[in-house]
Amino acid sequence: MAITLSDRHIPLAAIRDAATAVYGAAIRTPLVRLEHDGPPGTQIYLKLETLQPIGSFKIRGAQNTIRQLTPEQLKEGVWTVSAGNAAQGVALAAKKMGARCSVMVIDTAPDTKIRAIERLGATIVRASYDECWKTVEAHGSGRMAGYFVHPFDDDRFIAGNATAALEILEDVPDVDAIVAPIGGGGLLGGIAAAVRELKPDTRVYAAEPETAAPLAASLAAGRPIYFDNWTASFVDGAGGKSVLPTMWPLLSQISGSIVVSLDEVARAM
Length: 269
Known about the structure:
The protein is of the alpha/beta class. It folds into 2 domains: 15-34 and 43-49 and 158-268, Rossmann fold; 59-155, Rossmann fold, CATH 3.40.50. The protein is 38% helix and 16% strand. It is built from 12 helices and 9 strands. It has helices at residues 12-19, 58-66, 71-75, 85-97, 111-119, 129-138, 155-161, 163-171, 186-198, 214-221, 248-251, 262-268, and strands at residues 31-34, 44-47, 78-82, 101-106, 123-127, 147-148, 177-181, 203-209, 256-260. The strands form 3 sheets. A 4-stranded parallel sheet has the order 5-4-3-6. β3, α4 and β4 form a beta-alpha-beta unit. α2 runs parallel beside α4 (85-97) and α7 packs across α9 (186-198).
C-alpha cells in the first residue's frame, strides 16, 4: 500500500518482523572483502546479493509483501511491474504461496531475465519504459488484473529489503558507510531506515548511473523532481526518471548520491 504522509518511516519492528520470514525464500548473503588500490587502511566489502535464488535482493521485499496477503488476495493472483529483478522476486514468492503471477515487463529487459521469469511460472506482459514508469507512479494499470505488488513503494517491500542492512550491521558493526544502488528507492530507503535506528552515525549513499540520476538531482533541488536527461542504457536495474513524492521522506535524509558514468559501471563489472 502506498503511503503519502510526509513523515513516512519504516519502523525497526517491521524490519525485524520481516527478518523472521524472508528466509523462507531469500538467503543470508555474505560480505566479501574487496582488494583495492584505494587509500591504505580503507576496507571495502561487497554484499553478494547476486547469490540470492533470483540473483537480486528483490526477493527479500517480494517475500515479505506476499506472505502478508490474505487468502482472498492470493486467490485473485498477483502482479508487478519490473525491468526483471522485482518480477522474478514476486514470481518466486507467489509460486511458493501457490498464487498466480503476471508481470508487466519493460520491453528492453534482457532475454535472460525474461526466461527466468517464465521459468518461475509468471505470465509476461511487455510494455514500454514510459508505460511501466507511469504504472509505477499510478500504482496500477488497466491492462493488468489481481493484487498489485509495487516493486518498491510499499512499506512491506521496503522492510523486507531492509533485512540486508541488519545483516551488514551484524557482520561489520563498525561500518562507516553503506553504498546502495537506487532505482525507485526500495532498497536504499530500507537500508537508511534500519541504519538510522541501529547505527545513526553510519552514512548511507545512493549510487546512480549518470544517464538516470533523479535522486542526485532531487537532493540538489531539495525536493523530488524528474530527471530530464534520462537515457536508456545497459544499466537496466538501477536509475529512474524521477523520485516519487511518496518515497522522498525516506530518501531525502541520506548522505548523498554517487553518480557514475557508464564507462565506470562497465569497468566495475
